[in-house]
Design brief:
This protein is α+β, with helices and mostly antiparallel strands. It contains 3 helices and 4 strands; from the N terminus they run βββαααβ. It has a domain of about 60 residues: Flavocytochrome B2, Chain A, domain 1 (Roll). About 20% of the residues lie in helices and about 15% in strands. The protein has a 4-stranded antiparallel beta sheet. The relative contact order is 0.18. Bound molecules: protoporphyrin IX containing FE. The site of protoporphyrin IX containing FE has 20 residues, from helix 1, helix 2 and helix 3. Protoporphyrin IX containing FE binds next to helix 1, helix 2 and helix 3. InterPro entries: Cyt_B5-like_heme/steroid-bd, Cyt_B5-like_heme/steroid_sf, Cytochrome_b5.
């Protein structure tokens, strides 16, 4: 999970770890998707894209090892984005008295 930026990016796909640091700029799907797939189990993201056999073959170049599955968090905790609630904080300038 520490390997998650442009200078050091590892991916975890199907229990295998890939060091894609050198590949980031060459990835035709873009750098961002790979960075977004780091720091977690990227298996589902990867399978959802449905990459070609060629892509799967290329992956082998970046394979660096297996991960101990018991150390993978089962669920990633996402911090919900705080929604922008429109509030009217300006002074209305006048008040109605409600009787
Ligand atoms: C070592 C891992 C990976 C390799 C070697 C790789 C390689 C490739 C290659 C060769 C392509 C060109 C299209 C194709 O051949 O299917 C591609 C496209 C793409 N990849 Fe990856 N990829 C990897 C991981 C990922 C991951 C983890 C994601 C997303 C979570 C991803 C998302 C995409 C997307 C969105 C495209 C564009 C698909 C399109 O043009 O329709 N890739 N990748």
């Amino acid at each position: 999970m520490k390997h998650k930026d442009r200078n050091d990016c590892w991916l975890l796909i199907s229990g295998k770890v890939y060091n894609v640091t050198q590949f980031l700029e060459d990835h035709s799907g873009g750098v961002k998707v790979l960075l977004a797939a780091s720091e977690k189990d990227a298996t589902d993201d990867f399978e959802d894209v449905g990459l070609s056999d060629d892509a799967r073959e290329q992956m082998q170049k970046y394979y660096i090892g297996e991960v101990d599955a018991t150390t993978i968090p089962t669920r990633r905790t996402y911090k919900a984005q705080t929604s922008t609630v429109a509030t009217h904080q300006e002074d209305p300038g006048f008040l109605f008295k409600i009787i």
